[in-house]
Amino acid sequence: MVLETWHEARLIPTSGIGSPIEQERRATSALLAVIGAVDEFGKALLKPCGAPAGRIETYVEVPFELGKKSLRPDGVIRVVRGKKEWTALVEVKTSVNTLEVEQVENYLDIAKENSYDAVITISNEIPPVVGAHPLTLDKRKVKHVPVYHFSWVRIVSTALMQKEVHGVEDPDQAWILGELIRYLEHQNSGALAFTDMGASWTKVREDARKGVLRKADPDVLDVAAKFDALVRYTCLRLGQKLGTEVFPQLPRRQIQNPKERTAELVDELVADSVLAAKIRIPDTVADLEVRCDLRGQQIHVSVTVPASGHARSETRARWLLRQLSDDLQDVVIEASGRGRKVAVPLSEARSDEKALAPDSDWEISRFKVTHIYPLGVARSTRAKSSFIDSVSNSVDDFYGRVLQRLKPWNPPAPKLRSQPEERKVDDQYTSTDLSSMDSSEPATQPTESLTES
Length: 453
Prior knowledge:
Elements: H1 20-37, H2 39-46, E1 55-60, E2 64-66, E3 69-71, E4 75-81, E5 84-92, H3 101-113, E6 118-123, H4 139-144, E7 147-151, H5 152-166, H6 171-184, H7 201-210, H8 218-242, E8 247-248, H9 252-256, H10 258-272, E9 274-280, E10 288-293, E11 298-306, H11 313-321, E12 331-337, E13 340-345, H12 346-351, E14 366-374, H13 387-401, H14 431-435, H15 447-452
Parallel strand pairs: 5-6, 6-7
Antiparallel strand pairs: 1-4, 2-3, 4-5, 8-9, 9-10, 10-11, 11-14, 12-13, 12-14
């Protein structure tokens, strides 16, 4: 009989972590061991870093000499395929500890001296763009050795995707990966979720409410960067639930230069007291848009849907309304077309078919469906009214109740035309029919009338 006081033995225990150093060592050792033990997980994590598909070897705290300095990177990963070797140094931070420029650049120098292929950093810092790094590093050093960054939440997301969606062929390896996931999701592991908007949040929120934000204020820049991290975190968490890749939708120029994205957020925050983002979810009718109004303390989550191809705008409106569930509240529908917009609450659009199409000759080209949610004001998820939770929960709710139900309009298949009936033997021919007959064919109907003519 198993008693409630019995604790199941775990491959990677969360108990006995007495210091930040022990926390970091255990997380590093556990992660690197599982990367080497679970083939599919190791390949999925290292492929974006340029590693080949081969046998993975992992080591912890390997000593190196750099000039007169003795350094110990947290780990080394080596992939061997035939005669080819790919090697990366690993630097790990847990909890609230952040990466340090000098330390990472030292490891870049070590990698260059030893002809290694990459440096990988891991921490709870979430860059706004996939492929970006949270630190501003010397471009000359990065030119020789590329540096890749993984947030802990991204690592957990990759592990979950591999185990639950893509699958792990070997059952023992699948169990080992599950143990890593369980460990990293425990609060003692130091692999934290995104839980805090930072020390600047309260001041910026109050300044936004008063309309006195300034572009030169470093607090504004800090909150803009934190918001992008929150959007990326929200995408990763939603992707875990959906079993697919969800990511912020950004212009190419902002992907190549994340500072442009931050500058755009700062401009919009100062001008309108708004933080906004677009999220791309595969196979949906359109991108999800989230707009956080700090002054009005509302979150607007929306999607813009191309109208159907029906001839009448009223029919196009009914096509959209049929896809929206009856229990939705605080939803506004906006119809647009020919330089004109009409916006009405969903309840009004349901009760009056002409509310969205008041003029019969006006052609609707698209609809915008917006759900309005309350905005949390607290900086940390420990508080009841958390900004972070309000954004993540609003995005999840809108996707589940609105976006995943919407389908693009497809025109119906063309109908087969009915075939004309064959002439019956007693049909009466007209003079035109007779004149078009071949003269060699005898006229069979009606002979008497032919004689009389």
